[in-house]
Amino acid sequence: MKPTVLVVDDEKTFRIVAEEALSSEGFAVTTAASGHAGLAAWQREPCDLVILDRHLPDTDGIAVLEAIVREAGERGLDTLVVIATAYADITSAVQAVKLGAFDYLSKPLQLPELVVTVRKALEAKRLRAQVRQLTGQLAGRAAVALGAFVAGASPAMAAVVDMVDKVAQATDTTVLVQGESGTGKEHIADLIHRRTPGRRDGPFVEINCASVPESLLESELFGHERGAFTDAKGTKRGLFEEADGGTLFLDEVGEMSVAMQAKLLKVLEEMTFRRLGGTRDLTVSVRVVAATNKDLAALVQRGAFRLDLYHRLDVFHLRVPPLRDRREDILPLATHFLARFRTRLRKAAVAFAPETERVLLAYDYPGNVRELRNLVERAVILSTDALIEPKHIVISGPTLGEAGGAATPAFFSVELADGRPPSLDALEREYIARLLQLTGGNKTQVARLLSVSYPTVAKKISDYGL
User: Fold this and answer.
1) Taking Cα atoms as reference points, which of 262, 184, 178, 188 lies closest to residue 221?
2) Whole-prediction pTM value?
3) What is the pLDDT of residues 217-248, one digit of tens each?
4) In whole angstroms, what is the distance from residue 159 CA to residue 171 CA?
């Protein structure tokens, strides 16, 4: 299909010459002699590009420009407008660009210049369409990944998503997301951003406060001017500037030093700051979402976290439940990860055997969704046919929850006898029994987890009557 161009100009000679020149270049051209006629023609049949004269006999070209830009936005169209104006009226041309015109041309127009400008505009339109398509694809992939962490059958996560929807409508409210490592706190922050009107089209910027040295964190957040410190060889925008109009996600905020906490508090109160070495105040519009796997209230009691900052961050509190508290989500999540990894790794596996599903449901996942994802990836790598068998589920063994997170449920259930601790044999027997349960009776895998030989495991299983 030929690109379509509408020429709106009251000079008949120019309309004829422009139509001939553009048609010979492969464009489908229509013309109009007045502003009202041009706008009506565009409304009947929107085109790719409008060449619009600034001075028309019946109306101001700027008014026509504003009408086209407004209606194109309302109808989801991408029509570009190029304003044609006298050289002496260059100021109004600049105004037109600010109002949404793609470019302007000075009269009297030269046909080669007209053709080049039209080609440049239509190429820009093509690239914009390509960017929208790629952005949509990336957003779709991100949404799938996001859904894998937050969606599912459990009422616990449904309640979290409901809270997200509520706080999303409060576009400036600071949110504190708390939960164990691996529960997907960053995905909850992303979901808040995506569902917030007026911010979802802005940037989503994230930083892990624990991964940046304290000496560099201030520069990362607020930026710096050239010469602010030894290695500052140029001006650098900070993450607050980068997130202007969108959302800034501060992960592991509990790792921030008390001195840095004071600086962050001031910015949160006023949304105004200076770059390191700067003399000018910068003001931004940013929603801050902070996350931690620590108990910030306990840190406040120990003097490791400022009370005023805690209250400033905890305006709206969201707790992401651990996977063991939403077991209804285990199999849907595992199935999602299976589909992802079978495609990426080009494997035949398409489903979990019933025995494998029981193994997946029996485990407590101290590493939460992240651990489940890793477990499924390992299983897909080990698989050789369409079904994931229990022997493919390699569990790295019991671990304690990370600092600040809830403790993992006890791996052993041996009760004390008369107040005395259980014997080593009793503990070993239950340990092996638990590993057999988790591995679906796979003795080879139990031997691997215990770092002993297969005959040793087989003998102990026989001795303990397992």
Assistant:
1) 262
2) 0.57
3) 998 999 888 877 777 777 788 999 999 999 99
4) 20
